[in-house]
UniProtKB/TrEMBL annotation:
GO terms for cellular component: cytoplasmic side of plasma membrane. Residues 89-136 form the Proline utilization A proline dehydrogenase N-terminal domain. This is Bifunctional protein PutA. It comes from Klebsiella pneumoniae. The gene is putA. One of its GO terms (biological process) is L-proline catabolic process to L-glutamate. In the C-terminal section; belongs to the aldehyde dehydrogenase family.
Amino acid sequence: MGTTTMGVKLDDATRERIKSAASRIDRTPHWLIKQAIFNYLEKLENDETLPELPALLSGAANESDDASEPTEEPYQPFLEFAEQILPQSVSRAAITAAWRRPETDAVPMLLEQARLPQPLGEQAHKLAYQLAEKLRNQKTASGRAGMVQSLLQEFSLSSQEGVALMCLAEALLRIPDKATRDALIRDKISNGNWQSHIGRSPSLFVNAATWGLLFTGKLVSTHNETSLSRSLNRIIGKSGEPLIRKGVDMAMRLMGEQFVTGETIAEALANARKLEEKGFRYSYDMLGEAALTAADAQAYMVSYQQAIHAIGKASNGRGIYEGPGISIKLSALHPRYSRAQYDRVMEELYPRLKSLTLLARQYDIGINIDAEEADRLEISLDLLEKLCFEPELAGWNGIGFVIQAYQKRCPFVIDYLIDLATRSRRRLMIRLVKGAYWDSEIKRAQMEGLEGYPVYTRKVYTDVSYLACAKKLLAVPNLIYPQFATHNVHTLAAIYQLAGQNYYPGQYEFQCLHGMGEPLYEQVVGKVADGKLNRPCRIYAPVGTHETLLAYLVRRLLENGANTSFVNRIADNTLPLDELVADPVSAVEKLAQQEGQAGLPHPKIPLPRDLYGSGRSNSAGLDLANEHRLASLSSSLLNSALHKWQALPMLEQPVAEGEMQPVVNPAEPKDIVGYVREASDAEVQQALTSAINNAPIWFATPPQERAAILERAAVLMESQMPTLMGILVREAGKTFSNAIAEVREAVDFLHYYAGQVRDDFDNETHRPLGPVVCISPWNFPLAIFTGQIAAALAAGNSVLAKPAEQTPLIAAQGVAILLEAGVPPGVIQLLPGRGETVGAALTSDERVRGVMFTGSTEVATLLQRNIASRLDPQGRPTPLIAETGGMNAMIVDSSALTEQVVIDVLASAFDSAGQRCSALRVLCLQEEVADHTLTMLRGAMSECRMGNPGRLTTDIGPVIDAEAKENIERHIQAMRAKGRTVYQAVRENSEDAREWRHGTFVPPTLIELDSFDELKKEVFGPVLHVVRYNRNELDKLVEQINASGYGLTLGVHTRIDETIAQVTGSAKVGKPVRQPQYGWRGGRRSAVRRRRVVRYRSESRRSAVSVPSTLQPSAGRGWRDLRPPGCGASAGRPAENAAGKTAAGAAAVGRGPS
C-alpha cells in the first residue's frame, strides 16, 4: 500500500500542546495526530454533524493556496529508530529473553532435560569407555595427521613455545617479503625454551622438530649458550637464515595442511575419496572470514557458487543425506552483516543466500548456514525464516542451520526451529555444535559491561546443554534431521543410546572436523560385523589456500590446546579413562553438592559488572543487538526528545532569568535540543566567592564520605543512561555506540576516583588546592567533563565547571546528577559560556588555585602563559593540567593482519567523525603491503554510512559545527591543490544526501602524502593521511614522527616484538600501543608541562601529562590493559588486540603527603 506525506502548518503553541498531550499518555505526537484525524474522519463519513473549530479554521485560512506543495513534517527525534524496532513472536521473544540469563537459572533446567535413564546411562558409559580405550591404545597415528597432532600436544598454548608456534602459523605464510619473515622467525624462535621438550614426546617427528627449533633458536639467539649449543650454532649457521626460513615455512605449511582438506575445491574433493570409500560424508567450507568490502563479499559469493557446482557434480545424485554438502558463512556474503544494518542485510544479503540455496537445490546437496558470534544469531534466524517460505524451495529438505550448545539460548532456538519446520512444512537439517567463539564472547561481554555472558562459563555446563539439546532434536525426526558434531566420546555414546538401536538411513548423523576427529569416527563408521557402530559421520572440511586459513587455524589450535578439550585430554595418559568419559550431568551435580548450588559460574570468570572485584564496579553497557534492549531504549529516547533541555548557570544561590540561546542538533538544524544562557560577569564573581567559602567545608568532609557521594553519582548516572544518550546524540552528534561509551566512561571516572580517595586519601596528609576551574571539550562533553570534576572533588577541591559552548546541555545534566548525589551546591557550580568571556574570567582570577583544561594546543599555551607567574599564598605555583591535540600515527608492517588493521583504522580514524584527540591522523604502511591494505581500506570506507546519529544504522555522524566543517574542508581542498591523491567514500542514499546538505557532515577522507613531515598540524575530523615506508627506513620514519613536535599517541601493528622494541625505544610519545585501535597518552605539544605539587595518577584514559614531584604510578591494571586507549570515552570499548595502560582517570588534584 502506497503512502504519502500530508501536513498542516501549526504555530508553536499548538505544537507544544500536542506534544504535552501525547507525553501524558506515553505516545508520540504523530500517533496522537493520526488518532485525531481518523476519529474526525470517521465521524464525517458517518454524516455526523461536527462543530467547526475556530483554531483550525484560522489556521486553514492562513495556509497557502498552493495546497498541493508537500509540507515538511516537524522533525521528530528518534522516530526512525523507533520504526526500526522489530516485532517478535512468542518463541522469538523467549530466545531473546534467554540471551544472558544467569547460569544458576539455566543449568538446573538443563540437568533434568539432559539426564539419561539409568539403563541408557550405564550403556552409554560402557560404550564411551570402550571407544576411549581403543582411541588411547591405538599406535601413534601415522602420517601427516599424527605428526601434527603430536606436535600440537607437545607444545601446548600454555607454554611460550606453543604461543610462538601459533604466532608463526598465524602470520608466516601471508608475509610477502623475506626480511619480515626472517624477522618473525628470529623473534619467535630465539626466545623459546625448546630444549625442555627434547625426548618428552614418543613421536620421532616432534623430537626432530624440537631439535630443529632448538638449533634454530640457538642460531638466531644473541645469547651465549652451552658449548654444545655453540657447536650447533656453527653447524646450522653454515646454512644461513634462508634454509631456516624454508624449514620453518615447510613446518607451518604442514600444520596448515592438517586442518585444510585442499587448496581448491577440486583438490579437496579428490582428497576426500579415500574416506568416502570407508563410508564418510563431507560438508565443505570455503575458508574465509567476515567480508569487509563489497569486493570481498563478491569473491566469496563466486567461490561458493563454484564450489556448489563442483560438489553437486561430484554428488552425482546421492542426495542431501548420503552425498556431500556445503557450509556457508553469512558474514562472508555481506560486509555489514549485523543487527544495526538489518535493512541492508535483508535487501542485499538475502538474495545472495537465496541464490546459493536454489543452486544447491538444483544439485540436491545440503546447504548449511554456519553459526557465528552470538550477536548475529537472531538476524540469521530472520534470514532462515524468510528462506524457508520461498515458494521455489517448497518441499525440499536440504536447508541446514547450525546451533551452538554453549549459548544459553540454544534450547529456545530449537523450539523455534521446530515451530518453523512445522509452519513451513519441511524437515530442517540442524547441526548441533558446542561452539567455537567462547573466548571472544566472554571478552566482548566484559568489554561492553553487559549484564551477563551469552555462553556458559564452565565447559561441563556446555556438555550438559549439548545432551539436553540433542534429546530435543531427536524427539522430532519428522521435522529435524539432527547432525551431531562432537569429538567427545561420552557425548557420542550418549546420543548413540538415546537414538535407539533401530537406526535407519536419514535418521541422524555424526560430524567431526577434518584433521581432528577421524581416528574416533573410524570406530563408528562401518559395518557392525567389522566391529563398528554402523552410524554415519560427515567431515567438516575447510577448503582454501594456506594464506587464508588464519582465523580457522587459530580457532582449531585454541580448541586443541584447551585443557578441557577431549582431543587434548585423550592423549594425556595420566588422566584415568573413567574421568575422561564421566557423565557431565553427574559431574555438575557433584559440583553443586560441593558449592551448595547448581549452576554457579566459573569462580575465575566474574560477571562483567564484577571484573574489578571489591575495588569498584565495571560500568554497565547496553547491547544494541538485543531487540528487548532496543525497544526499551527507543521508548526512553522518544520521551527524552519531548523535553526541552536547559543549561543555566548553576550556582549556590538561585540565578535570575536572562536571554536564552537555542542549542541546535548539528545533524539536523530543525531539531532544537534545548536552550542555554551564558553566565554573566556578576555570576562568575558570585560563583568564585561561593567556591572559596565552601572549599573548607568540602575539604573537611571525610574522604570516605566524598567517595560515597561520587559512587551515588555513578549509580544515578548509570540509571539515566538512555536520557543522557538522547542528549549526547542530539547535542554532540554521537552515534548510539559512542553515546553508550561516553556515559560508561563518565561512570568509570566516578567509580575510579571514589576508590582512589577511599583507599589512599587522608585529610591530615592530603591537602586540596582550593577552587579548581575545569574547562572541558565538546568532543567528550560528559566523560571528560565528569572526569575533571570527579578528580577535583575527590581530592577535596571545590569546582567551577565551564563546559564547551557547543555542548552545555549534557554538562548541566551531569552537574544535576552530582548535586542529587549529595555534592553541596557551592562546591560544584556550572558556568556556561564562551571561552573568551566566562573562561577568561575564571582562569584569570587570582583566587583560582588550579586549572584543568582539555582543548586546543593554542588555548592551552595561552593558559600556561597567563598563570605561569601566579603563586598561592604559600608561594606555590598554580597547577595547570592540560591535554591537547596530537598528530597520531600508526605504523603497520607486513606481519600485521590486514583485516585487523583495516578494522582498527576505521575505528580510530573515523569513529566519532574523527573528533578524538587520540584519533588516528597518519597511517604509515610498509611498502610491500601498502597497496593491498589501501584497497581493502577504501572498500571498507565505502561501506560506512554517514548520517543522522539518531538512527541505529549510522556509523559516522556530523562534525560539531559549521566552523569545524569549513576548517576540515579547507585542508582537504589544499591537499587536492597540491596534487595529493584524495579519496572520499561513504554509502549514500537519498535520505542521507538530504541530511548532508543541511547538517555539518564531512565524509571519511583518505589523503596520500609523500612523507610524514608534509602534515604540519592536526586536522580534527574524519581525515586520514597515509605515508609509505621502507622496512629498512623505520628509524627514519620514527624520527619524522618525533619531529612533528606532538607526542600524544602512537600505534604499532606488528607480530614482531623486535619491531615493538625498535619503535618504543626511539618514539617520543606518552605510550606506544601494539595492535591498537587507539594509541595512548602523550606529551610534548600534546600536553602542557609544568612543575607543580600535584598528586597524579598514571592510570589515565586521557593524556594529561605532568611532571609532579610526587608522581605516584598506580599498581597493576588487569583487564584494563585490554581497553582501547583514547581521549575520554571510546566507541565499542576495548577492541581485539588493543592494548595500553588505561583506566577511567586523569589527575586527582590535591597536595601530596605533607
